[in-house]
Amino acid sequence: MNTLSNVETRRGETNPPSISPAADAFPEATSSKTGVSVRYALDPEKSWFVFRASYGREDKAADFLVNDGTYTYIAKKYVERYVRGKRKKYLQTLIPNILFAYTTEDKAKEYVSNTPELSYLTYYYNHFKVDGNHRNPPLTVPCEEMDSFIKATSTHNKHLLFVDPAQCHYKSGETVKVTDGPFKGVEGKVARVSGQQRVVITLAQIGLISTAYIPTAFLQKTGLIEG
Question: In sequence order, what DSSP letters do the residues of 43-105 get, joined into one string?
Fold first, then answer.
C-alpha cells in the first residue's frame, strides 16, 4: 500500500526526499486502490494525529483517508524473503498497526467516531496529559519530530529498527545531525544499537527509531538534550 513516501514510484531510491517546512517538500500521499493523491500543505489548523488500526489494517485505513483528501504517512522498511527459491524484497510496516495523519481535530474525531468504514480505527492516546473531562487526549506529534522521522524512515532501509530504550547505549547527551548518506538531515542522539553506531530518533510517546549504521564522519553535533 502506498502512502506518502511509500509510493511505488519512489521505491528503491538511494536518498530520502528532502523534508522541510516548505509545503512542497513532502512527496505525495497516494492511495494504492484508486491512485488518488494528496500533497502536503502546512496548515495552522492541522496536527499530526496518531491512529491505531487493528489487525494490521493501517494500509486500508490510509487508503480511505487519502481518498478523503487527508495526508497520511506509514513508516515502512524493506524486508527480504525467499519465495520459491528466489529472494524478493517487500515493504513491511515499521511500527505495526500505526499510521499518522495530518488533519484537523474535527476531522480526526469524525474518522474515529462517525465513520463506519473505519470501525477498526482508534486514537493513540497521550497518557501524560488529561483534558477537561479527566481523560487522556489523542496524541499528536510535533512537526519537527515528524520531519526527522520521515527523513529517516522514507529511506525504507532494511536496517531501520523500532527499538526499546534498553537496546540503546547512548554515547552522550548531545544531539547530532547526519550530514551525508541516505540518512542526511536526520537529527537525534548517537547510540550503539545492535553493536553499531546509529542515530536514534524519539517520536513523542510512540517509541524510538534507529537508523542504520552511521559513520562518525557523517555526524555533526547540534546541541545538548535537556534532562
Answer: -TTEEEEEEEEGGG-HHHHHHHHHHTT-EEE--EEEEEEEETTEEEEEEEESSTTEEEEEEEH
Residue with cell 514510484: 9
- CA 94/CA 200 separation, integer angstroms: 14
Alpha helices per DSSP H over the chain? 58-67, 105-113, 143-153
Straight-line distance from the first to the last Cα atom of the chain, in angstroms, rounded to the nearest whole number: 39
Percent of the chain with pLDDT over 70: 87
**Pairing, β 98-104 against β 196-203:** unpaired
For residue 155, give the nearest of 198, 107, 212, 195 by alpha carbon.
Answer: 212
Q: Is 4 helix (H, G, I), strand (E, B) or coil?
A: helix
Nearest to 65 by CA among 22, 126, 112: 112
Report in angstroms the alpha-carbon separations of 211 from 53, 159, 218.
25, 7, 13
CB neighbour list of residue 50: distance below 8 Å, 6 or more residues apart:
98, 99, 100, 123, 124, 138, 139, 140, 141, 204, 206
For the chain, count helices (H), then strands (E). 3, 15
Q: Is the model's pTM score more than 0.70?
A: yes
Residue of 115, 110, 39, 43 whose CA lies nearest to 72: 39
What pLDDT does 89 receive? 92
- pLDDT-wise least confident of 1-10, 20-29, 52-61, 183-192: 1-10
Residue 111: helix, strand or coil by DSSP? helix
pLDDT, residue 103, reads 98
